[in-house]
Amino acid sequence: MAMTLRLSDEQTEALRRRAEKEGRSVQQVVQAAVDEYIARHDADEEVRRLGVMAVDRWRPVLGRLGE
Fold this sequence. Notes:
about 70 residues, 2 helices, Ribbon_hlx_hlx, Ribbon-helix-helix protein, CopG family
């Protein structure tokens, strides 16, 4: 999918410099950033889901420990 991304002049210049330092295109840097963002948020959601399951599973024990 093609899309337009509007960045400030400062963001555009910083992105161009980062891409140049890494020897990659701006597009490659942006795609990597999007991939990392999605992966990080997917992992955060999984940790929250597992935390809820653990609390539910161990609620009786946790309750007794709190007495």
